[in-house]
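Input:
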Amino acid sequence: MALKGNLRDFTITQLLNLVNLAKKTGNLVVEGPGEVAQINFRDGKLAFAQLAHEDSSLAAILQRNSKISVSQYKLLKERAARMTDKELGILLINAGYVTQEDIIASLQQYFISVLRRLFTWVEGIFHFEQDARPPDDKIALRIDLENLIIEGSRQMREWEQLQEEIPSLDMALKFTDRPGTNIRNVNLSVEEWRVVQYVNPQNSMRQIAKASKLNDLEIRRVVYSLLQAGLVEVVRVGAPSVTISGRMFPTQDREEQKSLVNRLITRIRSM
Amino acid sequence: MQTVKIVVTGPFSSGKTEFIRCVSEIDVVSTERKITAEAEKIKDSTTVAMDFGRITVDDDLVLYLFGTPGQKRFDFMWEILSEGMLGFIVMVDSTRPETFREARSILETFRAYAPTPYVVAANKQDCKDAWEVDDMRVALRLDSKVKFLPCVATDKESVKKVLLELLYSILAEMDAGGA
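Output:
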C-alpha cells in the first residue's frame, strides 16, 4: 500500500527518518509549492533525486558543477541527446573529459541539493511508491541519510523560529528612519540586495519573495537579518501602520468619537 | 448603551489577567484552567479563552477590556477578539527575556489584524531582575515612536497610566487626521 500524506502533518525529515529506519526502497514524489520533486531510495539510502521543472540530465549537472563548459554541454545536448546518462558517463570518462569521481561527486551534490530544497517546503502532497526503482537511464547512487536528517531537523527548528519572528508574509517592509545610516556602506549578501531593492510599503514580503525567486524560508531568513540589523521594519501593505477606522467606535460621527475618547480619559483619570 | 473595547495581549504569564483585574469594576470573568504542561508550570493556572473586565464610563458608555489567552495554541481566538477594538496593549514580562521574541511576534500578528493604535507595557518592573525599559526596547526591536511604558500590573496607578497613554495615542491619531 502506498504511503500518502501532506507535509503539514508529516515533514520531510520524518519521511527520511522512516525510509532510513525501515530501510525502504521506493520512489517518493512530493508536489510542493509550484514544484514537483522525485526522490528514489534503495535500502534506506538516497539513490536518485530530481526536480520536475529542472534539467537533471548528467550533462546539465556536470555543467552546473563546472566539470564541462557551456559549449560542451550544448554539443552534448545536440549530439548525445539519445544517450542515457549511464552511456554518456562512460563516453565522457573514456574520452578523458571527466573522471568517475567527478560524476559521482556532481550527482551526489545535486541529489542532496534537491533534498535540501525540500526541507524548505512546509506544504505539499507526498506519495511513496514502495519498491519503485529510479528511471533505467539514470545513474543511481547510495547516499546515507543520517546527516541529511540532522541537517533537515536543524532547518525545521530554524523555520519555526523564523515563523515566530515573521508570522505573516502578507506584511510589507519599509526602511527604518535612521539618519546617518547609509545602506551602501552595509555589507549585504546578493540575496539581501535582491530583497532590499524591493523594500517598499507597497510590496508585501510574499511579492518580494516571488520577484526575488526566494522561497518562504529564504525570504524570512533575509528579512530576519535585515530586521536584526535595524535596516527595515515590518508595516502593513500600502497603508499607514496606524489608522483610526469607524469600526472601532459605536458611532461614525467624528466629533462624537473624539468626545467618547475624552470621556474615557476623564473616567480613567478619576479612578 | 455604547460600548468600546481595548484588547490586552502578550505572551503566557506576562500579566494580562492581573492588568485587567486591577482596574475592572467587576470581578474579571476569567477562563482560567490549571496548567498541566510541566514546561509552563511557572504559575498554577492560565487563561484558555479570554479575560473580560469592565469600566463603566457613564450612563451611556462602557469600556470592555479583553485579555487574550497567552498560550500559542489558543491564538485562533486573537483575530476574533481584535475585531472592532479601539486599540491594544501588548504586555511583556520584563523578567523573562525568553518571551521577548514571542511578544514581538504577537505584536506583529495584532498589527496585521488591525492597524489600530497600540502601546507596549514592560510589566513586572518592580521585580529586581527586571530588564531596563531601554534595553527591552532594543531587544524587542521597537521603533522609537512606539510608546513603551514601564508597568506593574498589580498597581492601579501604573495600569491607569498605560490605558491613558493608549487613549492619548488614539486621540492624537484622530487629531492627525487618521479617521
